[in-house]
Amino acid sequence: MKALAQLIVLAKKSMTFAFVALFTLSVVLPLLWMTMTSVKSSPEIFASPWGLPTTPHWDNFANAWKAAGIAHYFANSLIVTTATLIFLIPIGAMAAYIFARYPFPGSKLLFGSFLGGMMFPQFLIIVPLFALMSNTHLLDTKIGLTIVYIAYSLPFTIFVLTGFFQTLPKDLDEAAMIDGCSHSRTFWQVMLPLAKPGLIVVGIFNGIGLWNEYSLALVLANSEQNKTLPLGIANLAMVMHYSGDWGALFAGLVIVMVPVLIVYWFFREKIHETMLAGAIKG
Predict the structure, then answer these.
(1) Which residue among 92, 115, 160, 216 is least packed, with the fewest CB closer than 10 Å?
(2) What is the mean pLDDT of residues 119-135?
């Protein structure tokens, strides 16, 4: 029986390892292939799609960055995403702190309405949102798109940070109040720094989502001046399809991917610690 139990444990570990290995390959191999293809010429891509490049064509990145206008779209996405996070995280943190620490009559209903916003189909609000932005003269502006992104990301932010604030010991804010801190000072100087891991995770997930957001930007920022990076990549795919410069297209995809990978690499430990802490507490 002992040998059978050990065999079962070994089989489970082997299956887990195989699953993790397959999942890793399914993520890493497409990234490597895309990176490798980005330094090939168009004839070489079709002649040897799986082979290594004979001579790296680094000019593909220059063509995508300048000739195809990726630099302009990249700057627009950076501005809108950064501005959204600057306003979104403090607003979401304040709302989440109230929901977690100071329940009031109707707070559960209000919190449930935020959760409902996470499940509301996006395409149902496109038409009224377009009319609202047009009437307020915010249509096709970076400010208007930023405001929409804040509202769009607020439900998820409040949901995650409310759960995070609920896990923090209540003795901390009570001790701060006894020491003479006001409610606002307790929040900004005591509770918010303790919620830093949660803020980082929320910021990263929202940032990645906003960086890749396409449908809202397509409707609300459709001029060349205000187009974001996903719209630029779609435009690049169309342009390169007719010009036949497929290497520049893959180079543009790598340019989009690199910032996300860099952010994740720098904050990977915080993400893992926060997720592990949530799993243990759950």
Answers:
(1) 115
(2) 86
